[in-house]
Amino acid sequence: MKRRATVQPIGISDEWRRWIAENIVLGSHPDTLAGILRNSGVPAQQAQAEIAAALASPYLHGAQRLHNRLAKRDWLLDIQGRLDRMAPADMTTVVPRRERLSGETFLREHYLTNRPVIITGMLDDCAARRWTLAGLAARFGSREVEVQRGREADPAYEMNSIAHKARMPFGAYIDLVQGAGQSNDFYMTANNDGRNRAALDELWDEMPALPDYLTDERRGFFWLGPAGTVTPFHHDLTNNFMMQMMGKKRVRLIAPCQTPRLYNERHCFTPVDGRAIDVQRYPALAGVPVAECELAPGEILFLPVGWWHFVEALDISITVSSTHFRWDNDFYSHYPTHHDF
């Protein structure tokens, strides 16, 4: 007589227990969770016992209290988000341009209020505005620099930027940029700063001092790439000046109060594509104001800390970014250590 084969029941792993806890905290009904477990092969009695144990756990009660605090903070953020969505378009989707904005006015109207602005007229006389690719190649072509390469084969190239670092002579990189047409496959970015600060050291002497806004420290971040380079939606951990030296860039911005709608699950990134926001896939973004501007050579964009921004080069572009403001800009020291949200 043949024995009938039996299917061994699936036990409860710690991964399942984490799933149970997370979904209870998020408000799922215990009966719904029990049904999912049963459909996944967990015996009904075991599923009920695990859920009951989770509901009785003082650890889960502590996690629930923390979740309640975070829900309160999200409620406060959502108030500002709703007010932004109620505001006229010229208040939320237009980045103002201000000619030679004084330091005091900039501090009062933008730095302290966390509002972006484009400042014009402050870079007109600086040596960096006279940079050309041919001139840079003649001066620094033999020096080894670091760039990002192989980006187009990796949808998460920004999160995986360490894996895309490559070294090459600066002159060879400039040849690559000039012959590329439109490409997002390679880009020299702030992620390459550790290597390139020394390789291109003399360039910092040619940057404007901007004493109305910045300290006298010689530092910044150098960005060079062809038309078509993209920096996906993300936010910075400091206030930032984005100084455009060559070419144009398109920038899209979303206010920090909209963060609960940005599907932010890892560090400062979101999977939302800034070129075409898909509200079918990301319905929480429906109605969220998105500011857009074109940054021209000689202009400075103030990117306030926490503002989500997407950047696309419309031409061969050189940008220098700076964070050494005259005022407190240390917002990263208290940034969450764990980056999974």
Can you walk through the features of this model?
The chain is 30% helix and 19% strand. It has 341 residues and is an alpha+beta fold. The strands form three sheets. Strands 1-2-11-8-13-6 form a six-stranded mixed β-sheet. The longest helix has 29 residues, at 58-86. The radius of gyration is 25 Å and the shape is globular. Residues 5-9 have low confidence and may be disordered.
Please identify which CATH superfamily of the largest domain we are dealing with.
Cupin
> What's the N-to-C terminus distance?
56 Å
Counted up, domains total: 2
**Rg result:** 25 Å
Q: Could you state the order of secondary-structure elements as H and E?
A: HHHHHEHEHEEHEHEEEEEEEE
Structural class: alpha+beta
List keywords for this structure.
Jelly Rolls, alpha+beta
Strand and helix layout:
Layout: H1 14-25, H2 30-39, H3 44-56, H4 58-86, H5 89-92, E1 97-99, H6 103-111, E2 117-120, H7 133-140, E3 144-149, E4 165-169, H8 170-178, E5 186-187, H9 193-199, E6 221-225, E7 230-235, E8 240-246, E9 249-254, E10 291-295, E11 300-303, E12 308-313, E13 317-322
Summarize, please.
This protein is α+β, with helices and mostly antiparallel strands and 341 residues long.
